[in-house]
Amino acid sequence: MKKPDVSNRGEMMLNQPLNRVIPRLAIPTIISMLITAVYNMADTYFVSRISTEASGAVGVVFPAMALIQALAFTLGMGSGANVSQSLGAGDETMAQRLVSVGFFSAVGLGALLAGLGSLGTETLVRLLGATNEIVPDAIAYARYIFLAAPFMMGSFVINNHLRFQGMALYAMFGITAGGLLNIALDPLLIFTCHLGTAGAALATACSQLVSFLILLIIANTQRGILHYRLGNFRPTAKMVGRILYTGLPSLGRQGIAAIATVFLNRVAGGISADPQVTSAAIAAMSISNRFVLFINSAVIGFGQGFQPVAAYCFGARRYGRVRQAYWYCGKVATIVLLVLAAVAMLLSEQIIRVFRGEDPLVVSIGTGALRMQLVTLPLWGFYVMANMCTQSIGYGFSSTIISSARQGIFLIPAVLILPAIFGIPGLQAAQPAADVLAFILAMLIMRGVLKKLETLEKAEEKASAVKEPV
Questions:
Q1: What Å distances lie between residue 323 and 30, 240, 443, CA to CA?
Q2: pTM of the full structure
Q3: Model confidence over 161-212: pLDDT tens digits?
Q4: 391, 81 in Cβ contact below 8 A?
């Protein structure tokens, strides 16, 4: 693997054309995100070969996985964005402390979650929305997921730190290796070893451990990368506050999404008095949501390539470049989503059939849900970039509102109201309705942020002009 050139990091971030820099940083993160989405879909696919109940179990446990990831991204992106800003401002000592505080906090929190999650697993999966028919498979799946929490959180934090240092290629290598292992282990453990849903979870746990070890070795051995040192784990209230404030949007985005998914599962579980219909509804929504997440993962990966540029330039007071990067990324993402949505719309039924074609109820409900979500998919372009931009430049409150809107502020009420009125069509329409409202809110917030950046840019130009010799 060719080593990234770290000698010209500042030149790359501040001066090279954006249409070269951002794709260079984004391509590895897009690959990483797609690989992660693929092995999530692999779990869904192989488990769906077992039964509709097993497929529903993966959807039920998904919020717990999403919450673990949300906490990891809170610490990883919170510390990572501040690391990039510190490097842009020339303060490497602070950057060294930030990476260690973020990493060791994540591993410790992951160990705590592993212990707590392993206690009372049945009670937990029922709270997550498992019906009586789904509970056995959900328990089998959840146990290994919780055991993997420290490695999952550690690998996500390292991944974010590498990205914010402009080392996305290394991050891609670790995530890809674990993802490919997951895909290979799924059929082996599920079918050959006859472990069922537990086999899918064990495959995920093994892949997370491998990714963690690879990324940890890379981060602590390669030159030009900030290393993790226990001696640098010296958190202060101010530092922790900065990390949490900057990382809070990630908790809002994924944490509240996990809560919304629980509501979705519970509403789907009560959509009918027929257990077959409720199991099919949970499975169908899980499959359609996973597929849309697969498409969106590419956009999120592109946005993650934009983040280090935004954070570094903001730290270096290049506010105009931050604005230019936002518009460039938003336009590119929207065009790509329009194309992908059109293609997926034509193949919606076939996509759902790949996962659970044996159950006509799953196919019917899932196809309707997928088509409705594809209609609003292009809105994700500027929505995601607004979230990434505000988080990277430290506008934590604005970013938290944006990140919480789509799968929290608007989705939870939509899930509670629309199915009660319209039944299954209301369940299918909940996410698209939330998408439209979240997009409008994000654009209103971003309008103010862009004006603020323009004001800062003019002030910086005026200050520079005063300093110039006459």
A1: 22, 28, 14
A2: 0.74
A3: 998 888 888 888 888 888 889 989 999 999 999 999 999 999 999 999 999 9
A4: yes
CA dihedral angle for residue 452, residue 257, residue 107, residue 246, rounded to 10 degrees: 10
- Give residue limits of the domains in the chain: 18-457
**Closest by CA position to 391, among listed 455, 289, 308:** 308
CB 103 within 8 A of CB 158: yes
Cβ pair 164, 306 in contact under 8 A: no
pLDDT < 50: residue spans in the chain: 1-7, 470
Q: Is the dihedral of CA 336, 395, 219, 10 positive or negative?
A: positive
Sorted by sequence, the CB contacts under 8 Å of residue 331 that are 6+ apart come out as 381
Contacts of 118 (CB under 8 A, 6+ apart): 143, 146, 147
Closest listed residue to residue 253, CA positions, set 449, 77, 433, 26: 77
Question: By C-alpha distance, which of 156, 206, 191, 126 is closest to 33?
Answer: 156
- pLDDT at residue 464 in the model: 75
d(CA 232, CA 95): 10
CA-based torsion, 183, 187, 193, 198: positive or negative: positive
* Of 118, 124, 120, the residue nearest 145 (C-alpha): 118
Q: What are the backbone angles phi and psi of residue 283, rounded to the nearest 5°?
A: -65, -45
